[in-house]
Amino acid sequence: MAVIIKDDLCIGCGSCEGTCPFGVIEMKDDKAVINVGCTSCGACVESCPVEAIINIAEEVVLVGDKNSYKNVFVYIELYEGKPRNVGLELLGQGRMLADKMNQKLAAVIIGDKVADLAKEAFAFGADTVYLVEAPELKNFSTDGYAMAFEDLIQTYKPSVILYGATKDGRDLGPRIACRVRTGLTADCTGLGIDEETGLVAWTRPAFGGNIMATILCPEHRPQMGTVRPSVFKKPVPDYTKTGEIINVASKAKAEDIRTKLIDIIKIAGSSVNLHEAKIIVSGGRGMGKPENFALVQALADVLGASVGSSRAAVDAGWMPYPHQVGQTGKTVGPTIYFACGISGAIQHLAGMSSSEVIIAINNDPEAPIFGVANYGIVGDVLEVLPVLTEELKIALKK
Ligand code: FAD
Ligand code: SF4
Ligand code: SF4
Fold first, then answer.
1. What is the pLDDT of residues 63-108, one digit of tens each?
2. Spatial CB neighbours of 86, under 8 Å, sequence gap ≥ 6
């Protein structure tokens, strides 16, 4: 709860009782108390003549001086005991930021028996690895991992923390931001240093992707953001590099973790791992009807590719959401991206324009997708796809 009543200051005047639109303030033993249901709207704060009601969210809670916060931390998210690409991509960006700020780059690895992964973090650019290992931390949990991070922040005071904008990162980042009372720029697609202030400049699409907003965090520390996977390339690893490993004892106990992982059930077609795919064949509204996605799948099968989709095809119910590429879907960066019957709206481009080679098939020569495509085929996708698939089958001897 962000609004609290300081018991020692309350004189029991009752002025606040009627001000709560949710009726959750009550007088008990001549003191005001806030019951369950407070939305932290703040409507009651001004009603108190003795300033006993305070909004703790508005208080700047910094452990020590802002300038005492140093170094860039990158959260290395794990999946089945291995780092996800996004953490390694962020080590590249973290290195860039740390060098510009003349600070160190640290990787944060949380899990159970994961010490071996430190090598990987050093190879991808980390100077230091903070290793938090405990059986309770074997699988991701918001409570356990947030607790581990909060401890790290309070002890080591990083100036910047980068998380992947993944399911876990989007869960963890805001939780930590709230705990340590700092800001978080979500879903960034660009990072840099603001020349005037020396702060991290977090860039992300805003207003439906029509503008890019650059956000600074001047008052609070750490400066934090989640960054979309596949926007940045992984740095070239150097396995001769080493660094310092700092083992951090976890304070999380099993009873602190309110969720229990019972089972992991992989959904059918979990070839939807678009973030890591080298080749993606995506279809859009131009495919005409859901059955025609069989042509997209056929080309993907020949190339060993994953199948993607535009939002229009997802909204029409032709493809499940996990296949969606774009601003509100996944950000991908494959070696080859096929856009089949996709117009190239800005929100779609936001998710795939960092692909190395883009091949577009569209019957409208003016379609915006041709503005970003390396190769374009103007024609009916329903005619082009079978021919292309057959030709590639022959060329690849499949
Ligand atoms: P259309 O724009 O309808 O394009 C279909 C294309 O197919 C046209 O270019 C047409 O010329 C071509 N075509 C038609 N028939 C054929 C044929 N027989 N052969 C060849 N070509 C043919 N979109 C996303 O994709 N991902 C997102 O994450 C996303 N997020 C969004 C978030 C917000 C806040 C908003 C406002 C929009 C978002 N959108 C997103 C929607 C986006 O603006 C577009 O509406 C969407 O990308 C269009 O999908 P499309 O290209 O498949 O369809
Ligand atoms: Fe009620 Fe809002 Fe005050 Fe909470 S902050 S007690 S909801 S008026
Ligand atoms: Fe207590 Fe202030 Fe409410 Fe009066 S207005 S009852 S002093 S909290």
1. 558 889 999 999 999 998 999 999 999 999 999 999 999 999 999 9
2. 77, 164, 165, 166, 169, 227, 229, 230, 275
Q: What is the CATH number of domain 66-256?
A: 3.40.50.620
Domain range annotation of the chain: 2-56, 66-256, 270-397
Q: Where does ligand 3 bind, in terms of residues with CB under 6 Å?
A: 5, 10-16, 32, 47-48, 50, 52-53
Q: Using CA atoms, how far apart are residues 279 and 80, in angstroms rounded to an integer? A: 23
Pocket of ligand 2 (CB under 6 A): 3, 19-20, 22, 24-25, 34, 38-44
Q: Tell me what pLDDT residue 134 has.
A: 95
pLDDT at position 60: 47
pTM for the whole thing? 0.71
Atom of ligand 3 nearest to the CA of 6: 8
CATH class, domain 2-56, is alpha beta
Q: Which residue has the higher pLDDT, 263 or 382?
A: 382
CATH level 3 topology of 270-397: Rossmann fold (3.40.50)
CA angle 303, 334, 92 (to 5 degrees): 150
Q: What is the Cα–Cα distance from 185 to 192, expressed in whole angstroms? A: 13
Query: How far lies 244's CA from each of 66, 129, 161, 191, 241, in Å?
Result: 25, 6, 18, 26, 11
Note the pLDDT tens digit of each residue in 286-326. 999 999 999 999 999 999 999 999 999 999 999 999 999 99
| Terminal Cα-to-Cα distance of the chain (whole angstroms) | 61
Q: At what angle do helices 167-180 and 142-156 cross, to 10 degrees?
A: 50
